[in-house]
Amino acid sequence: MTEPVSTGSAAVDYPRHWAADALASDGGVVHLRPITPADADALVRFHEGLSERTRYLRYFGPTPKLPPREVVRMTTVDYRDRVALLAWLGDEVIAMGLYEGLAQSGKPHSAEVAFVVADGHQGRGLGPVLLEHLAGAAAENGFTKFEAEVLSENPNMVAVFRDAGYQISRAFDGSTVHVEFEIDPTDALTSVRNARERASEARSIANLLRPQSVAVIGASTDPKKVGHVLLANLIAAGFTGPVYPVNGPGQARSVRAIRAYERVIDIPDPVDLAVVAVPAAGMGEVLDDCMAKGVKTLVVVSAGFGELGDDGLVAERALVEQVRAHGMRLVGPNALGVVNNAPEIALNATLAPRIPGPGRVGFFCQSGALGIAILDHAAGRRLGLSTFVSAGNRADVSGNDVLQYWDTDDATDVVLLYLESFGNPRKFGRIARRVTRNKPVVAIKSGRGAMTRVGEQKERFGALDDRIAKMVLAQAGVLQVDTLAELFDVAAVLAYQPLPAGPRTAIIGNSSVIASLAAHSARSSGLDVVSLVDLGPATPQQELTDAVSHALADPGVDSLIVVFVPPVAVDTAEYSRSLMAAAEDSPESATKPIVTTFLAVEGIPIGLSVPGPGGVPTRGSIPSYPEPERAAHALAMSWRYAQWRSRPDAAPVELPGIAAEHARSYVRELMSDGGRELTATETAEVLHWYGIDIVEFREVSTLHEASAAARELGFPVAVKAGASEWIGRLDREGARLDLSDATAVITAFAELQALTGESTLQVQRMAPKGPGVCIQVTESRSFGPVVSFGLSGRLFETLDDRSYRAVPLTVDDARDLVAEPRSAELLAGAAGEQPADIDALVDLLMRVSALVDAIPEIREVGLDPILSSADGTAVLAARLAIGPVPTLADTGPRRLGS
């Protein structure tokens, strides 16, 4: 794919998918794109701005000026054997990288690579970023190796290659070092790229949430205006850095007794964060000023963008393009704002009238109006937050970015997400799977079909998308809930209590009815109730203390639910103190969670709180729920997360018999014809490279060919229609199978050709009998590539008895896929049949996943039917569809979403 670029006299086509916004190591944005002849002047300015030392290290000698002929050579490339990428900040080039093929040196698959970074931008990690994107372009063009000549006195350049994750070899030749390395993606290289992405994205969010100074652009003296509210909230929260009101020409000289400035560039000191509350039409001048001032991040609360429709979306995309071109990140537009409750920051850059106190829970949502309700609800429950981000239209900063930050943030123990959609679903799954290994992530979806696009699609596919969302989130270890109340219920037990070591639960209460309700809910939620102690309605407080202490000391108990209804004319505060005393005096309380339905209170009651600075509840506080069912369900979700975290990390699986590079090259060769469904022969070829063999068949067009194919394959055989929609149907509905002689084959061929109208049919060798199953991969706009598994046939299609997981799969994912459908017991040997070879099905699923993960041009896969017997699996029919790589693919060089 290419797009024309004006050069002043003619247009030059370059691969547009190579253009990308990427993050430097300091969290700032740089824009990368291929060079064009129109960039000659910018390239000359860039070269002239380099120090003498930098030019010497790049060109191995003094090169104060680039000769005109060299400028033409560097800016005129073929985007195949010679490629150059420029890194831009605004209108200035800040780095350049290039490769040139070495075919003339007898190395057709090698290219020489070099790059140079402006002195003022060295140390920002731009070298590895350029190298990563150059390697991606080179791989597309068939190169497998990079070589470089480096001066011996320039060890930093060699370190760039090594630190980028490549396995380099070096040869010394006097004053230079010759470096070579393979550029094919490996697990080690991908791991390094992901780590670099994680660090840079976390740093960009740290710039947002840990600013040293804040400007409020659009600050007003009118208390009813948004800009005034933002400034007032910043001041009320006690932000520890300077706050600068910016209110435009001719406005008041101060706002809330703080000196105001006409423009950001008038502020004498540095500004890290700008909170913008000006009309959309005035955003251009604001961006220019923020760029000139060196602002790192903008929070735009202004509306008037994508939420208004297509015209607003155009303006929103232009806003993002300008912000990133200026090297900044953007939260919003139409955002509520951000909060950081760390005492050394004390940032409330939101429109919310009430925010929770400090805590160890991070919260991300999109909707501004909902964000206000969320913050108020959390405050009412005394659930402390570490940080909060409301991303509004999520034009730039997304939940993925904030997850990267929370993964590295020692002040956040629990992550809460209010999801309306996934920005990049594959990236979300990759990040969430890593985060949930250390911190629980709880997500709420915003209603039925929320992950589905609007309109008819929501009506048709909303319910299915909800089911898939639940499975995909669970695959990444994310706990999904359905309501805000449930979200905070689960957050409270995760934030303040330890994880249970097992499902064994004791219930203690002074109401047999409420205790029974708790027990029923606990069992239905997956807990094992091992003890139910009824203390009676008039129990003395010491009995409550003793019962709690005894349950915590019992090695056969993993968690505890206490339900308490206060007796008449009794000081209930004494009972809450007794419960807390029992918990604090028991060493087992550090490993056994306690939840309560105590005094019908919701949240963290004062008497059940372990107060921290300012009286805010801290670890060890006991959450209370108005109903016992909610207490039991929250505890069960904690156990579910503990089970997830106890699963061993998925180790890379070596699948023998895979020739990934052959398959990749073959598919990309087929892509020269554009996206399409592959023929049966092409499909079989691609699958074969991944160790997936379709039961041997021949495509035939005449009676003579059918008879010859049957003899070659060996009787018995089947005759099938070649069109994908006929293959499965005829097999399942009793097509002519088990044909044992040439006459039967000829008869079946003639009848089937007349029935289907297909000129080409298939004669296929018979496979061992067994239950038929199907594996499909479809490209979902909500979740990326999704694998489904279920039994084959119209009945199971009608019942939609399928399990779903996102690509890539782990072995555990594959086993869950096989076990999850309701009809899976038929594979276990029901009705006296031999059980299917589950390991063979798992292996097949892993190969399909590896195929789609490695070759994103494969957009659809269908293996149906697959006969699964005790002797293995036999794929009778398959289809593949190829197309352009999705814009949300999580492959290749790391970049910001568009």
Automatic annotation (TrEMBL):
One Pfam family of this chain: ATP-grasp_5
State the Gene Ontology terms under molecular function: ligase activity
Q: What protein name applies here?
A: Bifunctional GNAT family N-acetyltransferase/acetate--CoA ligase family protein
| Entry annotated with the keyword Nucleotide-binding | yes
Cited Gene3D superfamilies:
3.40.630.30, ATP-grasp fold, A domain, ATP-grasp fold, B domain, NAD(P)-binding Rossmann-like Domain, Succinyl-CoA synthetase domains
State the PANTHER family in the record.
Answer: COA BINDING DOMAIN CONTAINING PROTEIN (PTHR42793), PEPTIDYL-LYSINE N-ACETYLTRANSFERASE PATZ (PTHR42793:SF1)
Key word Nucleotide-binding present: yes
Q: TM segments?
A: none
The UniProt keyword set, sorted, is: ATP-binding, Ligase, Nucleotide-binding
Q: Origin, by domain of life?
A: Bacteria
Q: The ATP-grasp domain covers which part of the protein?
A: 684-721
The uppermost taxa in this organism's lineage are:
Bacteria, Bacillati, Actinomycetota, Actinomycetes, Mycobacteriales
Which InterPro entries does the UniProt record give? Acyl_CoA_acyltransferase, ATP-grasp, ATP_grasp_subdomain_1, CoA-bd, GNAT_dom, NAD(P)-bd_dom_sf, Succ_CoA_lig_flav_dom, Succinyl-CoA_synth-like
Note the coiled coil stretches, chain numbering.
none
